[in-house]
Records
---
Amino acid sequence: MTFAALILAGSRGGEDPVASHAGVADKALVDIDGQSMLSRVIGAVREAGVGRIAVSAQGPAVQAEADRCGATPVAAEAGPSASTASGLRTLGAPLLVTTGDHALLKPEWVRDFVARVPTGTDVAVLVARREAVGAAAPGSRRTYLRFADGHWSGCNLFFLATPRAEAAVRLWQAVEKDRKRPWRIVRRLGPVLLLRYLAGRLTLTEAVAHLGRRAGVVAAAIACPDGLAAVDVDKPADLDFVRGYLAQARVPDRA
């Protein structure tokens, strides 16, 4: 594929519950099925056909793991949005962005996502319906946003298709900066959008398009048919689910 990929593997600061649960220094180094979580993500992105892969990371251990896996380690900034902005400036667009805790990432998700981004789109996000997540990952607890056309969960896959996507990343930075001051987020995103959402009259497609226009870009949400794409490792229960899922997948079908 003729674009680069950025894997966000920075630390939130303080003690990470997943790393503590697994007994390692950093979540990206957690062992899953004989591989570090980061190496699994790098491998999936590479198998999807992406040749140039950078890993935004803090600390020498994670950077060394990225280098061992053939990816380019780059210093993480203060937060995922700032790291993405830095990565976009360095790597350019088009740029695929995912996270180092996307332990079950499959190459076909990446290929299908990028292939379905509409022509003229500046930034796209992959999402999954609650029904698809429930069918593919029963028992996994996800966070959903409720829209008029269903409940949706993010899949930690973004495609910054053009240089104009930088404007969307700037909006992301502003929202991230004001996450503890909700009234500022509402002011930035617009009260009309919020009211339509609260009234249950806003679809996901409309919301993403509206947010894109606020940022000055064309934005799109792409639905992934495989709900497993919404599973990341954000808490110890997620790690237990992923390990259990992979263990079950290795068991031969006796039917």
---
Amino acid sequence: MTDAALPRPTARPLAVSNWLLTLCGLIIVMVVVGGITRLTESGLSITEWKPISGAIPPVTEAQWLREFELYKRIPEYQQINRGMSLADFKNIFFWEWVHRQLGRVIGLAALLPLVWFAAKKAIPAGYGWRTGSIFLLVCVQGAIGWWMVASGLTERTDVSHVRLAVHLLTALFIFGWALWTALDLRSAGARPRRVPTLGLWAFAALLLQLLFGAYVAGLDAGYAFNSWPLMGDELYPSAAPWLEPFLRNFVDNPITVQFIHRWWAFVVLVFAVVLARRLRGVSRRHSIFLHSAIGLQILLGIWTLLSGVSLHVAAAHQATAVLVVASFVAGVHRLARVGASASTSLGTSGTEERDYTPLVPSEAEGR
């Protein structure tokens, strides 16, 4: 059966799906800018949270001096950046301001179409709570962002890496939830899909890798060892310090965190290969997407280490993490559709449920 032969969803579910896919695109940009903000140490440059009035950046010299004076009060300036010029401050201020502006844009992009579709009664039955939850999660994410920044304004010279991990994982969860919902809406009849068992295990493995990736970023653990596959001359440096209690090493020890992030990537790769093999006979391009995303991500991770955490390479590594999430979500969703089709076929004496393939509908592919 080819995609061209499959029935397409009606206009209303398709419009809601397109809105959610646009929101996913904005989240990708947000994650990239968030990574640059972190890598340039810009995240603490704005020391106040003004969700509305903060959208207007400083314009006059007096306004810039006020922002700079506020920054001078925090430990990051006093212990690391003392003597920074106003011009240098403007550079780090820029990235944090852009990051917050994108947050506002995403908030509006989540709210305004939701209100419009709800008013037009265009949201299919059963999807009201899902689209509403996406908007609420976007709002919660804004609060988490400030909670993260606040951790570095009084005693620390950087933000809490644990709060950073919560912030990043929440962004990726919103992305995955919005993408899954968009793909559901693009199925014939806008039928929701359940995550198969293999998908649950794959998502769990990926979640753990993303968590340790966030820890690596928050602890600047990428700078600990810039060699691969060995850390220095050993698989794991024997002289590395250990924290007490033991479990703290899996959260607070940069060397342990980098080690786990290095090698858990290959556990995720195994799940990706298994998923791709399942997909190969169903959707070749989903299989290729999954292979390409995980392969590129591992190569970028190694390159990030070898480059000494180059800004451009590290930013590309974080951006590709979102593509890996997208490849897993799209691949698992495709398997879920196949499983639902098989069940429907068995239950209707050979009448197979027909779905609309969400990506590049004009492309035909054999089953």
